[in-house]
Structures are given as C-alpha cells and as structure tokens.
Amino acid sequence: MSANNFLFKDFKKKRKSKKIQFYLKDLIISKNEVINSLTQNYKYSYSKKLIRNYKKFKFIKIIGMGGSSLGSHAIYDFLKHKINKNFFFISNLNNTEKFPKKNFLNLTISKSGNTLETIANSNVYIKKNEKNILITENKKSILKKIGLKLKNEVVAHNDYIGGRYSVLSEVGMLPAELMGLNVKKFKRFNNLIKNKIFYNSIISNAANILDLIRIKKFNSVILNYDESSDNFLKWYQQLVAESLGKNGKGVLPIISSMPKDNHSLMQLYLDGQKSNFYTFFYTQDKFSQKINSQNIPDDIKYLKKKSLGNILSSQIIATQKVFKKKNIPFRSFMIKNKSEETLGELFSFFIIETILIANALKINPYNQPAVELIKKETKKILINT
Questions:
Q1: Using one digit for the tens of pLDDT, what is the confidence trace for 122-131?
Q2: 364: alpha, beta or left, given left = phi > 0 and alpha = psi -120 to 50?
Q3: How many CB atoms lie within 10 A of CB 332?
Q4: Angle between helices 116-125 and 371-383 (to 10 degrees)
Q5: How far are the Cα atoms of 221, 263, 288 from residue 233, in angstroms, in the given order?
Q6: Domain residue spans in the chain?
Q7: pLDDT computed for residue 2 by the predictor
Q8: Architecture of the structural domain at 6-29+187-360
Q9: CATH of domain 43-184
Q10: Which alpha helices (DSSP H) does 245-339 contain, by range?
Q11: Is 43-184 in the same CATH topology as 6-29+187-360?
C-alpha cells in the first residue's frame, strides 16, 4: 500500500476474506467509541481554555502506566523534531531519571483512577507548588479524590475507551496539544477508509495473520530499524498482547532492535524454530551521516562516499532477500516522513487490524481480565506486610 506518509508491503500472499470484510464494514458503521476517537468527530472532554492556560510550560512530567503513557511517549519520540519542550515519562516503579530544577506541569493519567503504580509515583514525583492535570474516569476513585482535595484540574477519561486504545482520545491528544502539535492532523480514519488500496490491504493483512496463527506461528517479531519509533512499537506491543492474549489464544509481539540484533538474534530468526512471522519497520533516511572516505582502505573501498543510511538500507534489502529465499513470512512499513498524519495513520492501521483479528478469533479485544488477578494479589500482600 502506497500513501503519502508511509509505504506498506503486505505479506507475499494477497488474501481476500469475506469474513474480515464483513467485520470491517460492521466496524465502520458501528457506534464504537474507539473507532470514533480515530475521527475528527470525536469530542474531547478538555477545553481549549485549559490548553491556553498550560501551554506556557516547557517542562512536563507524564505519570501513567501502560496505555496511559505509551501513546504520548510514542508521539513525543516520533515527532521530537517538531517539539521544543521537555517531556519526562514516569511509567515504571524504578525510574532513575534526574529532573532539572524547573517549573514543572504534571499530567497524571489513570482510567480507573486506582492504578497502584500511578498513585505511588504521583506521591513521589509531584513536588509542592507544581501545577497538575489529572485524566481519569468521571467516577469515585483514589486519584480523583486526591485531585479534588488539592484543587487540581481533572479531565474526564472516556469510560468506553481502554488505555491501549486511548491514544487518539484525551489521553494522547491533550499531551500532544501541550507539545504544540496539531491534533486534527492525527485523525486520518475517514480518509483512510475511503482509500481502496488501504481498505483492501487491511483485509488482506488481517487474513494473512489469521492464516499464520492457524499454522501455529504465534510470535510477531518487529524488526525495528528506527530508534525513535521504539515507544510507538511498545504501544503496538501492548495493543496486540492485551487485546488478543486471552482464552488460550493470542500473538506474542517481540520488538527486535536492528541492526544490533543481526549480531545476536538473527541466527535464530533465520535458522531456529519456525513459529515466527516478521514486520520490518524503518524510515526513509535522507540526512544520514557520511562515512569519512579518507580513512577507508582499498579492500573495503565500496564504503567510500557511502552514508550510515546507505549501509542500513542495504542491510534491510539483504535481510528481506534472505527471508524470501528461506520462505520466512514478513511484511514491511517504510516511513516516508515523520508527521502527525503519518503517526495518525499508523495508530489507525494497527488499532483496526487488531480489532479485526480479535473479532475473527471470537475474542473480546477491549478487556484484560487476567491482569486483575495480579492486582488483587498485590493488594493482599501489601495489606498483610
């Protein structure tokens, strides 16, 4: 699939599927809040006044777990060249980052308002007299109780959109506005779904992945050649794992850092067990550093006048050629430009793809019941120790 923003090559086999086409048509006409959030029709629960009041802040901490922070972190890293502010992401309990002594705005996000790690981190990293915005559901919760007590700004989290699907709702778009980005440009669903190439490609793509699952290829390995896309792919990893991993089914998404993993994991990918399928993810690098030709000896003179980007693109092409020879299933995404439109298209693509696969597998893509077991056990241990 060719678009202005990225070039997508599907798996070798082009597939048509009436079942997937039915699910896609049903998704388009449904009153699904997740799909609505991908469109410009979506109504945010925050006001433009709130953005005006807080856009002056140059230093912002985002505190949240999983989908509450992964989306905004993906946006920040992918579009850093367009952002002149400093964002810090506190998304684990072992944060070692040192924060500068600046005037910070804190954005704390938890759908339930009861996320243990988020509440603990907010009590550690929010300092006295710092300004705060909370995003949480409009119901009783610990986070909302704290926010109201401290007279913080409280923004309503959409009740019908889970964390991993929330990137184009308030959860991702409020931070994007604070980054100075144009949130309207992220909303590409209406354009994409009218694009016949996109429409047919996503049907073929979902059908191919289902075929691979049926022949017991359960590991989806993403070969990432672009470090600034790492958090985007971590967002994708959560999306796939939490949405499909239930009822004894699912796909294990694995992010592989390339070309570094050529020297550690590639031997297994090429010649090990055969339960994997692959996604190449890379950018069209136009501004790569040049190699100093004066230091290149004659026995590797083919490197003269080359750039690091030339080497990387040659490795991608070579790896794909070897994969084809070995009949290893793969698809590829080449990013042409890093913009709000590109990232919006990628978010939409993977969200739709995941929901279609879940529907075909008769899985609810929106819940994560097993995770609640660990939360309950953790609470018991903390109470009794």
A1: 989 988 889 9
A2: beta
A3: 18
A4: 60
A5: 11, 21, 22
A6: 6-29+187-360, 43-184
A7: 47
A8: 3-Layer(aba) Sandwich (3.40)
A9: 3.40.50.10490
A10: 266-271, 308-325
A11: yes
